[in-house]
User: Fold this.
Amino acid sequence: MTAREHERALDLIMRRGTEEIGAPDSAWLNSHLSLCPECEAFAADFDGTGRLLQAVAVTASPSLVAATQMRVRARALQMQERQARTVLIAISFCIGAMSSTVTAWLWWEVGGWVARKLALPASIVEPGVFVAWMFTALVIAVVMLFSSRPVFDRSLIMNVLGHSRKEATNDRA
Ligand SMILES: [Zn+2]
Assistant:
């Protein structure tokens, strides 16, 4: 077999997918492919690539594009949710710190006044300030622990994800 024959074979393999080739050319190509494993392998690769490209083109239907967009939107919602939660935790922390300070100050003022009135030693007021300061922070921590549910409804996101997945499955079918 000459290099020219292989060249002709490769040319016919590439043309075969896109345009009609004559019956004599087709017959010649088939006989060459049965004798030449190199060209046979190229033909298999070329046809495989064609099928792959076709599959990708068919898969990228408008509804799959829409499903992908929906998935991106759901992801954005998730990101928003996480950001919102971070902001909430930051606000809770600030409120907690502020209310703790106010409670401690109140305890210091009221406790000091009560201690003076009842003629109690000032040493019982000082640990009280610490307890009051810790107490508010503790309450805030417990509230934050129990309110750590998602800000946005997670089932909504799961619905969007489930819906788009169903669509993608329908596309494949
Ligand atoms: Zn060949």
The helical segments are 3-16, 23-35, 37-59, 62-117, 125-146, 154-172. The CA atoms of residues 72 and 161 lie 10 Å apart.
